[in-house]
Every structure is written in structure tokens, then in C-alpha cells.
Amino acid sequence: MSFDISSESKVYAIMDPIREKLQRFFAEKSYGNGLVEIFIVFTCRPGNFKVRKRFDKAIRVLSYDVITSFEDVVALPVTEMKRMLIEALNGSVEVILGYHKKINDFDFDSFEKHWDIFFEELN
To answer: Which top-rank group of organisms is this from (predicted)?
Structure first.
């Protein structure tokens, strides 16, 4: 699992430790050969943006955006900002699960169970 985190909203300091924990948590887990990498682009932007999501079948990589409102995020105290960002990331699992019909040889049930465990432990 890989991450790219935008820095303009100053969320990097909050999200980078979460990214590291998420990567460590999933590093040794295997769910099948149908999906070998998940790349999440975490961005805070003003305005409305369409979430990009793409599964590259040739290299078996799923990439997608998690977009939060720049104005909403920067207006929050740090503890609330962290909660909002974690909720946005946790909710993004629906993008991954939405590919269950397009990706063969991937154990979506186990992945979802582990995803839920990770976020329970994070809170």
C-alpha cells in the first residue's frame, strides 16, 4: 500500500504517521495476485473535484484519490482535523471494495476485515 499526501493544507504531519502504520500493518498480508498494490492519493483542495480511481490490469495496481475540503480541514483544531482525515481515509475502503467484480484472485472479505481492524486499533 502506497500513499501520496498533499502538503499545502499542512495535513502531512498528521497523515504521515498514519500512512506509516497502515503500510506496516498491511506489509506482510497477502490477499491474492489479482491486486498487488493500492496507491492512495490523499489531497485537501478547495472546491469540488472528481475522485480519480483506476485499476491498471496489466500491472495489477489500483489507485484512487481521497479528497477532503481544504477550507474545512484548515479551519479545524488539530484533534478534529485528525479525526476528519482518519474518517475520510477509512471511508475510502468503499472504492477498493467497489472493484470486487473487476479484480479476480483477491480476497476482498479478508482485506475488509483487516482494514476494519486497523482503524479500530488506530482509534
So the answer is: Bacteria
pLDDT in tens, 71-80: 888 888 989 9
Integer Cα distance of 119 and 103 in angstroms: 24
Domain count, the chain: 1
Query: 13 near 51, Cβ under 8 Å?
Result: no
pTM score: 0.88
Domain that holds residue 42: 2-122
Of 46, 51, 66, 57, nearest in space to 2 by CA: 66
CA distances from 54 to 18, 41, 66, 74 (A): 23, 12, 13, 28
